[in-house]
Structures are given as structure tokens and as C-alpha cells.
Write a structure and sequence with these properties.
- Helix content is 48%, strand content 0%.
Length: 101
């Protein structure tokens, strides 16, 4: 099937009346003389990664004095990061995320 779209031509969408809340459940509940209650089996599982991101966003486990010292060294131009250590940490993180490190 091929549809051709022509500029300037708007197709009219049919008007759909809004549904009333629990219309089907309400009539069934009234027929039985009570109210109906819907139960669900929905659940939420928070992964360890999400928990770690939440903790990091709250600043848990962050050494504020060390962060401030590093900021000062960066501002002074005396901070020299170790490229080998950075690469090792990236490889370790990649392994945790499912990579083949």
C-alpha cells in the first residue's frame, strides 16, 4: 500500500466521545450490588545501577574535602591526572556495563 501525502490537504479525524471513568466496571459492579476494585500485578524493580546513580546524585560517599582540594589544584594549574589510571577505570566501568573488558 502506498500513501501519497499532499501538502495543504488536512484529513478530518473522526470525533470520538470521551469515555466515562469505569463505565464498564461500574455497570458490572452495580449489577452485583457493590463497587468493583481492580487489582494489578504491576511491580517496579530498581537496579543496582539506578541505586548507585541515586546515591551519587545525593552526594553520598563523596569526600567533599578531596573534591575541593582537586578543584583548587585544577584552578592553580598544578593538577596532573594519571592517564593510565583513568583508562583503567574506564575499562572497569565498561566491564560492569556489559562490555568485554
Amino acid at each position: 500500500m502506498t500513501n501519497t501525502i499532499k501538502p495543504g490537504i488536512q484529513t478530518q479525524q473522526p470525533t470520538v466521545p470521551p469515555r466515562t471513568p469505569n463505565a464498564a466496571a461500574g455497570s458490572a459492579g452495580q449489577a452485583q450490588g457493590g463497587t468493583s476494585v481492580r487489582t494489578t500485578d504491576d511491580s517496579v524493580r530498581i537496579t543496582d545501577s539506578a541505586k548507585a546513580l541515586d546515591a551519587a546524585s545525593r552526594g553520598e560517599g563523596v569526600d567533599g574535602k578531596r573534591v575541593e582540594a582537586i578543584r583548587n589544584r585544577i584552578a592553580e594549574g598544578t593538577y596532573k591526572p594519571d592517564p593510565q589510571a583513568i583508562a583503567s577505570k574506564f575499562l572497569a566501568m565498561e566491564g560492569q556495563l556489559g562490555g568485554k573488558a
